[in-house]
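Data availability excerpt. The first of two example chains:
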Amino acid sequence: MPSIESLNPDIPLFARTGINLASQGLGARAVWASNQFFAPLERMLHDSDPVFIEGKFDDHGKWMDGWETQRRRDGGHDTAIIRLAGAGRIIGFDIDTSHFTGNYAPACKIEACSFRGERPPEEQSWVTILPHKPLGPSAHHFFKCESFESWTHLRVHIYPDGGIARLRVYGVPELDAANAKGEIDLVAALNGGRILGFSDAHYGDYNRLLAPGRGINMGDGWETRRRREPGYDWMIIALGARGEIEKCVIDTAHFKGNFPDSASIQAADLRNFGDGLTDALITDSMFWKELLPQQKLGADAEHSYRDELTKLGPVTHVRFNIFPDGGISRLRLFGTTAP
């Protein structure tokens, strides 16, 4: 049974376990760029993998899937500012130059700041969290971040010009659990909810299960293959904060001929478990207490449960079961934080 830690073992652990705070789908925004002549900054934040389309040109030249500046002739370098999807501690970067061969940015540096608005003022103080690093053509460049502070904005410098296909900023969203008021979505990615493992995730983008908003299409969520053997599919999720779950929403948006027949949720309080997924945790999860008894699901609809939930007190992890297989667009677990 795959865990996030075991997927793509050649990729650094921070890129397998962190949440991409520069995800456009989670709410990251392109704020400003010194130049975006060939390709706009916002493309650098797209969640999809970059593509190359042979023979596709626009009014400015070859169409490229990323951010690309024009060739500088003044001795300077290009800069861009992005607002992260949410405040958080950054643990690493993936600076992806896929498909940029003769036009990639040869080097980069990243600074950070914390600012409540959209665009920090000119006098804003910035802190270097990734010193100058060399980049190569059409490749992923993984860099660990040693900063332990929480940031909201990044300023990306490329030297002297060129293109970056994707910038992924892996981190841990900041959730001020002590000051959280009322019910919050304890499993939301922007509140620190993380998928630790699953039985199958053949289709779609399973990380979008914990994303804000409703799914935009059938690929925007978790979908398993058609099960041809006995059993059912499941997913293990760590809550962003220990809390008491009081409401559950299971959304099958866009899943019409392939939604699960039914679903249930189990939960446990594993304060001393630590971070990550092990075979022992998978086995243990089969015996966690029932939070939501098995419920029938329908096509392309939000299913809300409150009175059906068992009062278990504070929990830290859930096991989301779907019977026997199928697709779920979003899962919401609303509740109040606990010490």
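And the second chain:
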Amino acid sequence: MTISSTLRVVIAALSIAAPAPDARAQQAPLQDKPFAEHKIVLQLSDNDARKQGLVLSVASNLMKHYDPDKVAIEIVAFGPGIDLLRPENPNRKMVESLVAHGARFDICLNTIDTLERENGKRPEFIAAATPVQVGVAQILFLTENGYTLVRP
């Protein structure tokens, strides 16, 4: 094997093994909560009013139990769970109140894209929602960075 063919094999192997350079760029950055002692990610993947209420209640209770500056809360909605972040959802005021107190609500763009393909129209979501490309990948990113996953 010549040096040039060996070099080509090594470069090919590295390009297969290396992650895409923008793989992390598709995630929402970590919250800017330097004094947070607790970091929680809440998963919402159901379109069930009781489940939505429970997720919001858990986030609210955590904010009350800990000072809002001492807890980082991120709610990741994907699949049917994105309905919580639609403008007409009756829980909209509660979502916006939690955002005002420092919680973050992520919405999965893969779900949005799928609904657009199926219905021919892009679904709307509230401005308080932070778009992420892949909801489950955002959960994985957060857990890899010290967040505890809770699925109420």
